Amino acid sequence: MEPFIRSEQYNFIKLQTQILINGHATANDRDVINTLKTVSKERVLQLFSDITEEQNQLLAPVETIKDPAQAEDYLLQIKPYVIPFKEVTEKTVKKLFPKAKKLKAPLLENIDLRELSYLGWDDGGSGKKFIIVPHHDTFTGLHGTIKPANKKGICAICSRFEEIGMFMSETKGTIQGTFIKKGNYICLDSMKCNQNITTLDKMNDLIARLK
Ligand SMILES: [Zn+2]
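A: This is the predicted complex of the input protein with zinc ion.
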């Protein structure tokens, strides 16, 4: 079986396992537990529009999860079927950010590529942040300045309450040659953000606003 689960779908499934663990720990009512099991399984299976029998067999046991150890086993079993983030070459970086001279692609040696929905990194000392997101069969790039907000807030990418920064980027205005600055609060820590993402909706909205 080929990898078929996207990183944010894996995070969503992980979240369902946490909901199940909490449910078993707090609810005593058998009906409540049964509903919870059914809903969790449906939510997981509904992530995949044309699921095969084999994929179904891999994912369906989510409903049997009761405790953290079982969740860990289950997540270990499905992890190999998560699609890793595609390799980003220096050439890709140059193509996406032609004006950023000497910009280096971040080193991904110690990063689990299955845990990335997007690649975000700060260009050392310049106060700039670069974001690469898979888009159809290629990549799309966002860049701008990032300034720590020195407080927690809602991230425009993962929707969680995290340490955020103002990501200010320029987009082309409707009149040729004009630019509009747009600011969005996003997680300062892109790795943390990636672990929080359970849907790509907000990221797609952000791209639509900034592209
Ligand atoms: Zn975030």
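Residues 90-210 form one domain. Residues 7-26 form the longest helix (20 residues).
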